[in-house]
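= Paired protein data =
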Amino acid sequence: MENTNDSLLLNTINTFSDCDDLTRYSLKNKQLQFLYFKSLIDKKTYEQEVLYPFESLKDDNKTVSAYLKNEQFENICTSEDITERILNGYIAIFLNQSEAYVINAFGPKTRSIKESETETTIIGSHESFIESLAMNLSLVRRRVRSPKLKVVYVSVGEISRNTVALLYIEGLVDMELLDQVKQKINDVEVDIAVDIPIFVQMIDDFPYSFMPQYITTERPDVVVSNLANGKIAGIMDNSPTAFLAPTNFFDFFHSPDDRNQRWAVGSATRVLRILAFFITLTFTAFYVAVTTFHYEMIPEALLMSLAESRNNVPFSPLLEALIMEVTIELLREAGARLPTKIGQTIGIVGGIVIGQSAVQAGLVSNTLIIVVAISAIASFVMPSYMISAALRIARFGLILLAGLLGNYGLLIGIILLLAHLSTLSNLSTPYFNPASPFHPKELVYAILRVPYGKNNRRPTQTRTKNKEDVKSLGTSEYE
């Protein structure tokens, strides 16, 4: 619906009916009227560029109109455009209710830049993203001082109209992959897009899979290192998290500390994470399979100790393991949701008091307590919380199969998991790359961190035409 000039102020006010936080201020006997949200504007900008200058002007239309012709003011002709500007932190200025101008005064209060609590590092950068899109972009721009770093804005949410900034480096990114990301975002039909971890689930290729399909990070240095590999990064306004695409399974095992330390230490740490992956996934299930069906696999000395520890336990190994795993998950969730000091107390009470009491009461064996504890500790080694949570789900499935079919069930579960990983894709690129399809040299670089300068090839998954790295420090996650 088109608006006449006389109805601009009225239509805008009607659009914001029942918005008690909308501020309406009049000057010059209502010759000038301002509309804005105090929570979205910078008070200093408002006072210095709007309030004080207009108060000092002569009380006549020619003087006011002449001042409004300055470049910081933009003439707007429709109430719909005025509404959108006000919601984006602009101040709308109405002259005699017949002319409308806006000025950008966006400046809501934001928290300061701090260290990420979910992606901590021992050495290296300690900056993390915050909820301000402009500030997050500045953290990336400071690290990539080049015009080849491109930013494309895409709007998400029919009601929220959140802005997603897609970042890529010109000449490194595959434009077809970039077009796919844009198309996926444009195809999202949702009223409100709240945060990146929720948003990436809306653009998954396989929404019913329990595996995370996009790397999410709060660290600008991680974003920059992946941009150098030809990947695409997405940052959403009001979200402290960025997503990276395309992503493969092995990306979830990489940490900034791998690059910041000597290559031997970084490689050993990555191998340790791979070992922790197998431990947290199979250790409890293997215990259930052995104690249920395969006693012959246990050394004689250990068999006597195990039989003694299970002598008074009334439950089967399967039920016993499920009880302890569920208890561990309850303690984990309780510790995460409660305040820090109380959460630490819950962990101590749950891990020591409850575990010891359960053994003394004969409800579980002390051997299982050790097995479950090792599996839980191994899950904390994962640098990505998303992959750690997914492995916990897979672990329960393997425990059930091991309790029903023994080692055969465990083997079937592992095969099904590998088959599932091999069938997944991210932006039409193989999720299990470089294991499937098999690229032996690239797989070695995904697991080990070779010395800088010894590998100058970007990963094949990004489909970049510029496959040679310039060997600059920290630019490739496969170095």
Residues 470-479 have pLDDT under 50 and may be disordered. The radius of gyration is 29 Å. Residues 224 and 395 are 33 Å apart (CA to CA).
